[in-house]
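Input/output pair, single chain:
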Amino acid sequence: MDNDTLTVKFYNQCDADFWNAIPGDQRYKCWGDICTTLSRQCLVNEKTKKLIYGLLSGDTSRPLGCDQDVRERSEDRKRKKISERSFMLLTARFGSTQPRKDSCYLVQQVQNLSNSIVNYDGETLSWFGGEMTMDEAEKRLEFKPDGTYLVRFSEGYAAQGGFAFSVKGVVKKKPAEGVVKKKPAEGSSSHSIYHYRILGHPETASSSNKYDAQLRLDVGGEEHELTYPNIVDFVKNRIHGHTFDGIQAEFVCRNLKFNDILGGR
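Output:
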């Protein structure tokens, strides 16, 4: 399922120009300099900055301790080196840095993600898992109820702006071509975990006056699949509450690492 077929690259020249304008060498830039450069051309709130940092670095932890500890942690984050590849992937998944009034598609789409939270029994949750291997997704879902799901970045289709959707349950018919099934581990429930690809078109997503990544479920090349402009709309209108080979995606997986940021805690 996860075979990288494209070299990671900038799909928009303005994103390459943005990266090159940041102080530092070509391959790595400090987060503080990235944040400063982005803030000069876009209005970015603190929650969105934290989420962009987490998406680029993989660090979603909250600074804890006394005020001095928090300040020191904040300074450490500013010095954190972010790779050019990570920034390329971010723009492939969430859009360009090209200025549009007081914002850009990248900031708009990350803000959109930050608002995509649900409330279960007073607990604020997000379905978003970020960078996560198939094995990690299976460990998260293994002991959860049937119908529990999460959405993560695709391991191998990142260059195409790809995501992956993982859900637990019992498939009541033969899964579509391209769907990966994980058999249950010993000691877990008898039900399995299934993985579906979500593919898009980062090369054209930022080219018009409205962001449109044309995300679709990759189920054996079925061309009748509807497309959606971004991952939030995709989950809302194509995943949550819908049935996949007999499994209804009902419950958001708890304890995903981005919940501290997305829940505003």
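The first strand starts at residue 28 and ends at 30. Residues 176 and 219 are 6 Å apart (CA to CA).
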